[in-house]
Amino acid sequence: QVQLVESGGGLVQAGGSLRLSCAASGRTERINYMGWFRQAPGKEREFVARILRNGRRADYADSVQGRFTISTDYVKSTVYLQMNNLESDDTAVYYCNAQISAAVNAWGKGTQVTVSS
């Protein structure tokens, strides 16, 4: 079993930056990818970014490409999301995700990111 705890959300003005962190515990050796999804009010949860646990590959949603950077600390089993040039459309609850297999995922409880215009 894998447990995820997010931190780093908050309120920021448009154009500003925030850094999210997600620490995994438990059976972390089973994790393939770690990443982030987000859900804005009235919208479905959407993919933001993911990274292989060893850091060798990262994927991004088109909407955040070039503004967000995902990274990982393999030893600490922690993934980070550096968010720059934030826009009002980035306002959402951000959820950490750990993919263990094609059918098994772990989720954090979420952290709120609010971007004021």
Can you give a write-up of this model?
The chain has strands at 2-7, 10-13, 18-26, 33-39, 46-52, 58-60, 68-73, 78-83, 92-99, 105-107, 111-116. By secondary structure, the chain is mainly β. The protein is globular and about 40 Å long. The model has no long low-confidence stretch (mean pLDDT 96).
Short description:
This protein is mostly beta strands and 117 residues long. The chain has no helices and eleven strands.
Q: How many whole angstroms does the radius of gyration measure? A: 13 Å
Distance between the termini: 40 Å
User: What is the helix/strand order?
Assistant: EEEEEEEEEEE
Helix content: under 10%
User: How much of the sequence is in beta strands?
Assistant: over 45%
Main sheet characteristics: 7 strands, mixed
Q: Name the poorly predicted regions.
A: none
Q: How many beta strands in the DSSP annotation?
A: 11
Number of helices: 0
Overall mean pLDDT stands at 96
Task: Name the structural class.
Answer: mainly beta
Q: Globular, elongated, flat, extended or rod-shaped: what is the shape? A: globular
Topology:
Layout: E1 2-7, E2 10-13, E3 18-26, E4 33-39, E5 46-52, E6 58-60, E7 68-73, E8 78-83, E9 92-99, E10 105-107, E11 111-116
Parallel strand pairs: 2-11
Antiparallel strand pairs: 1-3, 3-8, 4-5, 4-9, 5-6, 7-8, 9-10, 9-11
